[in-house]
Amino acid sequence: MxxxxxxxxxxxxxxxxxxxxxxxxxxxxxxxxxxxxYNYITSALEPVDPxxxxxxxxxxxxxxxxxxxxxxxxxxxxxxDASIFKYYTKFKNESDFQAGNYSLTQSMTLDEIIESxxxxxxxREPVFTMxxxxxxxxxxxxxxxEKNTSHSAEKFMERVTNxxxxxxxxxxYPELLTEDILKENVRYxxxxxxxxxxxxxxxxxxxxxxxxxxxxxxxxxIVSEYTTILAEKEMSVHEFLTFASLLEEEATAQxxxxxxxSVFYNRMKIDMPLQTDPTVLYALGSHKDRVLYEDLEVKxxxxxxxxxxLPPGPIAGAGKTSIEATLNPTETDYxxxxxxxxxxxxxxxxxxxxxxxxxxxxx
Length: 363
Fold this sequence. Notes:
EC number: 4.2.2.29
Keywords: Cell membrane, Cell wall biogenesis/degradation, Lyase, Membrane, Transmembrane, Transmembrane helix
Main location: membrane
Strand content: 5-15%
Structural class: mainly alpha
Order of helices and strands: HEHHEHEHHHEHHHHHHEEH
Helix content: 40-55%
Catalytic activity: a peptidoglycan chain = a peptidoglycan chain with N-acetyl-1,6-anhydromuramyl-[peptide] at the reducing end + a peptidoglycan chain with N-acetylglucosamine at the non-reducing end
Subcellular location: Cell membrane
């Protein structure tokens, strides 16, 4: 009896040992599976290729649900796993995705992809932004580019004045860059054609061509809004941006640009020189706090004190306000204006009135 009991005891121990081993193996398998699943899910939530900026065209058809959208994105290689993307959007309670054509990249996060599909436009967090203020010349923009990118101001100026590059841009933006920019006496062909704005860049070190094209493309978009009205006014794009640049440079914080525009138009109608100081400074090629009488006599095509009409080309990059004021001047009989020490403009119809304003507001 004792012998049998001893044998049973040994069998129980063996069974327990086997069960323990099986249990341990199961736990290890579960742990490995869990760890692998965790790694897989974590990886699936990350961009497919953080370094890729290659654009992939994706079409989301009308009526597409999250399941079909997820499948399309996976097939195009924008996301790693359709199911993970689907459950991620449900977890975040995201919906109302818009149909359309998108240019997406493998470096976009799931949140950026979701935001793009919700807004109907490609949305990405920029690596950096670069602000080009209104009223800057090409040489001043070159300094902005140098401060924000790896490209020197000298290299920027070399590129924007390169004849082959200019001709290439004329081919790419034929409605914006016409033969007018190549006319005699135009200092820089692309002066005034790089739109002032805050630009997002999605790669750490964009090429110089990408930087320049981004600004040209923005100006092309802006100008295209006014194609019809320019045709009605029989005004060329070059004249348009040249006029707008004068308004931009004359502007102060409190400037009434539409009224200043009326002064310039009124003068041009009677062949009266525009006599705007910023053109003198541009002719001199240097900034001065005060324009002297001797400066007004400088012989240069851009000097509107000695030349009638618009200068050969823009003298700076005009913003939207100046661009719109160019096409929507106030109806006035004014021929003169001046800004007082606070920046408020005072207008006059005659030279005597203008002299009185000088005496009243500047002395």
